[in-house]
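The data layer described in this paper is built around a simple, fixed record for each protein. We quote a single record here, exactly as it is kept in our systems:
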Amino acid sequence: MPKFLRYLFFALFYICYSTYAADIKSIGVPYIENYPKSVYASGNQNWSIAKDKNGVMYFGNVEGLLAFDGRYWQEYKMPNRQIVRAVATDNKGRVYVGCFGDFGYWAIKDGKQKYNSLTHLLPKGETVTDEIWKIYVDKDRIIFQSFSRIFIYKQNKISVIKSPSSFLFLHAVRNRFFIEVLEKGLFELVGNSLIHLPQSEKIGKQGILSILPYKENGFIIGTSKNGLFTYDGKDFIQLNTPANNFLKTYQLNNGAILFDKYYAYGTILNGLIIIDQNGQIVQRINKSSGLQNNTVLSLYADNEQNLWTGLDNGIDRIELNSPLYFYFDKTGQFGTVYSSIIYNNKIYLGTNQGLFYSDWKANNELSPFNFKLIPNSQGQVWELSIIDGELICGHNSGTFRVLGDRIEWISTTSGGWTIKKLNSNPNYLIQGTYTGLSLYAKMANGLSFVKTISGFNAPSRFVEQDNKGDIWVSHAYKGLYKLTLNHDYTKVTSTKYFDERNGLVGNYNINIFNLENRIVFSSDAGFYTYDELSNKFSKYEVLNKKLGSFATSNKIIGAGDKRYWFINHGKTALVHFTEPGKMEIDSNQFSMLDGRMVQYYENISRIGNSIYLISVDDGFVIYNAALNQSIKTNLPSVLIRKIEDITDKYTLISETGSGENPIEIRNSRNNIRISFALPYYRQAKVKYQFYLDGYSKDWSDWSPATQKDFTNLSSGDYKFKIRAKINESTISEVTTYEFTILRPWYLNNWSLLLYIIIFIAALILGKKIYERKLRRDSQKISDRLQAEQEEILKQETEANEKQIIKLQTEKLQAELASKNRELANSAMTLVYKNELLQKLSSEITKLKDENGKKLSDDQTRKIQKVINDGMNDERDWHLFENSFNEAHESFFKKLKAQHPDLVPNDLKLCAYLRMNMSSKEMSSLLNISLRGVEIRRYRLRKKLEVPHDKNLTEFLIEL
């Protein structure tokens, strides 16, 4: 029994949840992303849509084939610039297209998309004379359909199926193919035959534009003029639905099945509708609700729950499972929305023009809003809040309660910005106004104004009560106050003002919020907390660090269950304090709300367990958190979209990174750009990380950039690896792209072979040259050795000769020295002899006879004559002269040659001076007095013209 109850509970929960989710989906419209032709840079009309196995979207455009990968658009023109009416893809990477007079496929060849026509395979005599409108890939065959023919391409052959009347459109449903033959009814294509379906005339004779699977084995058929029908395989039955009138009036044009239980139908005149299996309209989406154009030429539901619309002017993507649904006031009826709330099956919008309301349907029925202004509510609405079952409106003119479509004034105090219950006494409420604080009390008949609290009159934009009962008040430009009230809350007994002196960053834009029962203060520098003991503010570092970029949020709004909305100057995040010390921040899915709320007056109301009403400046948004949790994210792989040469100009190398063989790039073109994209089309924050094996040292930082330049790559093999991450959480698989930078021409294989041949030839030639040089060098060395030997012999001979000369010189010097000694000895002998003779002469003059008398002159004359003759004997001079000439060869010759006026006595004096004799010695040799020697020296000096500063003896020695 407990097990049964558990299953019953889950079944009931699922039914309730599914119904509630559908109800929410019927309010507003899902997120629509517009791609105008200015973005995709091609023609305005888009006739068909397909998606390939890699996730790339293709569109049959009036200008050709369009490709979109989530980041880059690419246009491929047909050979004759025809309009592409039909497009389909297979699992081989081919993109089949059909146009006027031609059909074929686009495929990658040599790294680039090339078109391959198939019309040359037509049987002889067959041609394509009109437009190809439908293409289907059916296992190993491709079916092309025009209004006059069906062409089946299989095994490189084409077979043609004709009809006696014109075709309309071929439809593929549950592996079956149906086609309308005008004026004949509906047929099924079986093999190469057309089989008529009985009872199909009930649908009408023309105008079947959509056939989709219906329930288990049935089909739902959409017609242009007769509405919707069901077909169970036997009979055709009109589907009674409110959608029929819409589709008949606005002309159904195409259809697509969604989630296996919803049907989207595009129209010619009014956008599209989505119905459920019962035919109830769930969504109505047109130009006024976000489409670029009301004419829907094509529809395609992809595997990511996106509905793509090819329009008469542009392309739109409808995010069907988006947790955000939008309602915009395209007419400007109610102005700028400051607050919104749902109360008693009505939705109320507080705007700058007043308070508007409309009915709120709690079931799955789609009902358009019809907003009306509540009488007497004109003016600025600041706040809408439900207090104890009453809807209270803070208004520029005061405060009133809302009673359905009318109001009842409670207070006329201007500017009811915010109203809060007192924690210390929930029966009282305090309201912040333009001129201070107002006190309210709960009465039996509802909320009642008590009085304006005296003692404080500053504008009070934010009001919070702390755990001690003090009231904190702030205003964007007036600063921050802490107030203490008396016991009945009617008077301020104490006021404290805080600014930079108390640790705040300033007194501007300081706001007050209650976060998990703790008062926090927001500022442009982050969140602060207040310390009672020190009377100082300090940064709430733990919170600021975990919040990251939302640390500077200007507003916090409670979301229930430990969840809070943090709004940072137009950017929104939902923060969940899951458990102490942990925090989950979700901001990426709210990026489409950036800048759409009224800054500093942002308003988000909780209207269900996981459903929120978000006020935006021109309407409101419904956020279903439960729906967001049900979305599973299966990331595709990152695609390599382009490889370009950027060396000196931009040149396309390849359009894909999925080639079988790595591309080879010339070394002179080794500067490349790789462009990549993630074919993920939902609103998300996408970042990429890459690694170039052979170049990078590590993975790059995560970045939103979708291309990377590599310059001056060395020759070698490279592997470019790329992966993506969405919303800072889910990471894709790694995509690898290989390429090779070739060696420069002078290092390629032929060049290397040539270098080897040249090297071998150089070796042989070098060997010969070396041998020749060796012989020449040997000869040179031999000649050099011989020359060196001769030189050595010559040097030895010269050395010997020098030695001989030296010995001879030494011998001559020795002989000269000997002769000089002999000459000196001879001279000294002569000097000694003359001195002796002079002494004898002197002594003779002193001789006496026996009588003691001096001898007479006659007696001594002979002796004196002998002495004088001995002293003047020329033989002594001749002997001295000969000896002198032997020692000083040619001295007298030179002297006589230079001074011919010299007499013999002058020559004698020169010889004695040359021998460096003293004046005394010279006087003895010359037999003259010392005075006579000096006189002769003087005369000789004049004859020889010896300078005054020159010594005569030195002069003669140097001669």
